[in-house]
Amino acid sequence: MLAVRDKRDRDAFSALFDHFAPRLKGMMMRSGTPAHQAEEIVQDVMLTVWRKASLFDPHRAQVSAWIYQIARNRQIDIVRRERRPEPEDLVEDCEAEPDASQIVALEQEATKLKNALALLSDEQREMVEKAYLGELTHQEISTQTGLPLGTIKSRIRLGLERLRHELKGMR
């Protein structure tokens, strides 16, 4: 492994592959992975070993432990991916168009929100708009404005408290 890590030695990697590939495949198959999938995992693991050989530290782990850990993690990733439920197709309900009262109610809420935003200080309004209307993270706002992260968070928190107070009776 050290020759692979330090010199990118292909012969040393070939020896590693010949030693670990059948053992990894056996481990995968004993845990219930089909043979074809076990072979794919082994190929992927050994490719990872080649690519990330520079990360191997003999003081932290033995070669076998390091390679088996990579294999185990890869197997877990594949199992999780397979068990992830498929999203259902969304069906549009063409008949569910909003009626006039819903449209008017939304317009009234938007007007109240606009008026409540106008009551905020310029600094608070700017931060709330960037965070919620501009969909920026606090860190992005800090980077953009040059203000400290704590200042950004405080202004947003104070602005939201004021908005909550102003819009208390809406819902």
TrEMBL record:
User: Which ranges carry the RNA polymerase sigma factor 70 region 4 type domain?
Assistant: 112-163
Entries under Pfam families matching the protein: Sigma70_r2 (PF04542), Sigma70_r4_2 (PF08281)
Q: Which residues form the RNA polymerase sigma-70 region domain?
A: 16-84
Question: According to the entry, what is the taxonomic lineage of the organism?
Answer: Bacteria, Pseudomonadati, Pseudomonadota, Alphaproteobacteria, Rhodobacterales
Residues crossing the lipid bilayer are: none
- Keywords, alphabetical: DNA-binding, Sigma factor, Transcription, Transcription regulation
Q: Which InterPro entries match?
A: RNA_pol_sigma-70-like, RNA_pol_sigma-70_dom, RNA_pol_sigma70_ECF_CS, RNA_pol_sigma70_r2, RNA_pol_sigma70_r4_t2, RNA_pol_sigma_r2, RNA_pol_sigma_r3/r4-like, WH-like_DNA-bd_sf
Which family is this protein grouped under? Belongs to the sigma-70 factor family. ECF subfamily.
User: Which protein is depicted?
Assistant: RNA polymerase sigma factor
